[in-house]
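Worked example 4.2. Below are the chains of a multi-component assembly; read each line carefully before continuing.
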Amino acid sequence: MAALAQTPAGGSLEQAAEEFRNLSRNMGLRADSPRRARTAGRARPAYHGRLTYNLRNDFLDATPHDVRQRGGDKNILRRNQFGFNVSGPVWIPKLYDGSRTTFISVSYEGVREKIGRSYLRTIPIPEQRAGDYRRVVDPAGNPLRIFDPQTTAPNPAFVATSPVTEQNLQFLRSPFPNAVIPASRQDPVAMRSFTLYPDPNSDAGPFFRNNYFVFSPEMNTADGMIFKLDHTFLDKHRFTFNYSFTDGLSQQARFFDNPANPGAPDRNYANRRASVQNVFTISPQSINTASFDVITDISDNTIELGQSPAQLGLSGVDGEAFPYFSLTGGYLNMGRPSPVSRHARNTFIVSDAHSLRRGKHNVRASASLVRYQVNTGLATYPSGYFRFGPGLTSLPGIVNTGDSIASFLLGLPEYAEVSLVPSPSYFRKWRGNLAAQDTWEIRPGLNISSGVNVEISAPRTERYNRYATVDLSTPNPFNGRPGALVFAGRDGQGEAFQRTQIRAQPNWSVAWNPRGNRKSVARLSYGMSFASFGMPNGQWATQGFNGYSTYFSPNVQLEAPMVLREGVPPPPNPVPDLRPDAANLTVADLVDRSGRLPRYQSANASYEREVKGSFVLSGGLGAAWGNGLFLGGTSVNPNAIHPDNLSYRDLLNDELFRRAIRPYPQYLGFNLNSAWADGQYRREAAWLRVEKRMSQGLSLNAYYELSRQYDDYSGPGGRQDFFNRRNEWGFSSYNNPQRLSLTYMYELPIGTNKPFLAYEDWRRVLVNGWSLSGITSVSSGEPLALRAQFNNTGTVVSGLRVNVVPGIDPHVPNQGPELWFNPAAFAHPDDFTMGNGSRTHPTLRAPVTQNHDLSVSKRFAIDQERTLEFNASGFNFVNLGNWNEPDTVIGTERAPNVNAGKIIGSRGGRVIQLGLRLSF
Amino acid sequence: MSLGRRHLLMLLAAAPHALSQRRAELRRVTAWPNGGEPVTAGELREQLEASVEGTPAKAVRIRGPESELLLFVILDLVGDLAFVDPARQSLIRELQNLPGHVWAAILRAQDGLRVAVDPAADRAPAIAAIENTQIAGRAGLLETIEPAVRLADSVLAKTPVRLAILYVTDSNIYNYREDYTNPVINPSDSRDLSRRFPEGLIREKTTKLADTLAAFDAPVFIVHLAFLRDRLNEAYQNGLQLMAESTGGTLSMCRTPNDVPTLISAVFQRMLAHWAIDIEVPDSAPRNFNVQLNAPQMGLQHRTRFSRAR
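Applying the procedure described above to all two chains together yields the following structure tokens:
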């Protein structure tokens, strides 16, 4: 801020140039600056950085809406987040002067957090747990009938040509006298396990449902650092080295505090990342960037051990954790899957990119090679998995009878499984890319960019060839039908089960200024890409090397595969068991060997225009579509029974019969690990964006999108009919057709250099440096997926839909939480039929959701270099409650779901975070 | 890069006029005609009314587009040749077309501010320097803008020429050596809300720089070659605009490579066309003050807010 020259003009440019030379020399800005000037500041190298601290406390927050509605109060929240960053040149007195060439940055952040979680679950009431069902009711409030499986007998009067009804029973079974299971019949393993179950503590209902409310803290501890070193040498090379690490412990909320807790296990995280990069400016028109990255992510599960199967009196299983008891019908489970696991993922990336400018062409060519390693140890059920359903205590063939708790009390699971995993797996995979992109300026105002990316995707292998899959063309020695286990590196199999895939992925785009007006830009683009083979954690596709002893019931309504008090039967064959039929009668792991990979395509057109007032308006249309998307779970099933077989009706409850009509009868099912390339989707969208560049301290960005997205797989139930995908085509279950988002930043117009309150005295400390930032988002709801409450299809159908009742409007006037849609417009499908409604409803949608976050900052300038900033951020600062989704489960006429069409409660609540940052 | 106390002392030593005698403070107001008839400097002097915070102020010198102009062209080129090369070609074209009373110095912003070519009547060295510019991997605008403006103001303290600074940059906030992005350090911390408003660091840095730059007189013009839409870069680009406007300059954003020649040409025209009006700041003026200029026949668009050094 030197004063302006007061000398007269004339010959001034020469004088100015001379002054420029002198001043820049003295400031050390020139190669010929004296050493003293170039090293000025050495005594105090220019280190910059910051100290940060963020605080959250339940004292500052609003009570979450869902907690308040249940009469609860806020639970504890303590969160402290702290850290620092320092960066500057590397300069060691008398040893090394890197003030212009070497730069280092070090950041640290730590978190200590304790946050309350609340859950509302259903647990059996004390009488029910003791076997007394006199007060136990079904979801409609009617007495729940339980039957004694020991009294099962074929009904001589059964008319096989008529459906099974209470008047035409295939099997007769007597109810327990007085609806009480005698103590002598109760299984000691179940009774010991029940001592670890908590008592009900809530009456949220309806009836005895939602009777256990839990407040439980999650604990989160994390510490991490990032180091960056940046060095320039020979003027044409820039070398960068980055290293970061973090260690974290995530302690999950507990449903109850003993080894039977069904909550997720605690998890340890450790991440290490290192990268080196060299940018070489070969010539002004040619740049080469080479880099090497190594990333290691380690995570492991840990739980409180104790109450092992042996301690519970459950013999035949060796695990040290509490067994996993799955209690169907909405009850809180006991124990959990994957109590102990360890995954280490290593990724090595070598890449090189070269940019070249020739005439009107800018060419970029790149190549990369990525090597993945996943070392993983995951025994899903080391202490056993035992699923209890209502079937064994039901009146066979009659829905809404029987109870999973009663079956548990009798020690009669419908399915059991024990994992035998002697060693971890070491999976490997690589992927390569060769890409070229040309940007061509055809004429002023018109640019075309086109390119192709050739991806070479190698499939997963296992270091020791401990890798297996069912091959759907190999005959199975058990029955001669296609489908047998094959093993990597054996019997002519390669080390991988899939072929290396090479895919060309083209793209092109055009940017055009219509009529040469640079304030307007029209853009067109098209791109195609393929996903590569997955590399999941876990020991999927290692059957034979690892064992999964499964125990299934031939008919889940008639016979249990085992009895708890008698222990788990020994596995028929010890592991490793490398016979082709080793996976028979299991849910076998199946690798997709079709050679398909998910293909995604998109095309977009947009137009943007700069207008007065620092505004940019844009609008566009886009379409995206894909096929061969990776699916799993209930969305795809190569071993599905054709729905025509529903005509066999109650015979389908017989596992042996059911198995006989499967395409691959030797398998109960297939585990595809969400890697079966069979899904399709399409998305169409139109959007508008308004951007306001900063003026008068305000900048904002508003975006509105109207979209439709369809697919043939998404939703809570997956596909109903695996053989008619066209009938599955419908709205994506997660599609929000309208979305509006608004982000804004506003420097308040008060204080120094501002229009208002530009105080010079002490008041400037109060009024300077205020700013606001905000994010607002509003989305229309997702399409509703209506589901049938009972599924009496002999497991032929998994995602059972509802029937549409003709002539009844599903919409209701004055839509509200009391009634969001008309459940009378839908009906539960009859036994052994599929619903005729769509997978997701074409017009019914969940409620609108919205969120508004605001941050207020006040900056205090301590001196020219140091600043203290105080920040208060409100997340959902207006404390708005978003309605939960309505209950979409449709019951039968006899047992209607009384909550169907209603919305139970809302969620959300204001969260406040306070922060301090000292910058220097 | 900020200057240390030692630098400041050197600058002060280089400005003997400022220290040797107590004179009224002069500030330079950058202005452009805003409609009306073209006028000469003499005509403008006759009709110009200047005031500081409402107090009449004397315009001691007025220099128009025909007077000598010194340009600092600072290259901050770090990335995509598709943008960088058109920018180099455009700069070369503009330098070749500069009138004789305009001299340009070429500087680089990587690894600290560095002089590549001194200002001179001969354009050839400047053009060669631009043609041979190295594309470095790290941005440098935020670290070099303050020393660049200090250097410019020091030149203004010695000579009465018009002066403007032009940054040509394709920097984005992610390729600075110093960390303004507050990256996630603990990915296992799933409930981290501190990065919901990630632009705080950038806003703090650019606001602080804008406050500092408001104490200088040389206008800064920035041509940004690569418009980016992510939240952090929007905050960065808004910050660049704030900094440029605090000196009376402008930010021009290229949204496609097609924009590069047009915008570089436009900003050269604007720099060449600017008026430099030196006014005497009354002693009564506060540390932060508004300047109003009024020329009835000409109409003036000009920088209004100034502050004095702390």
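Take a moment to check your reading of the output against the notes. Chain B touches chain A through 123 residues (CB under 8 Å). The longest strand of chain B covers residues 25-33.
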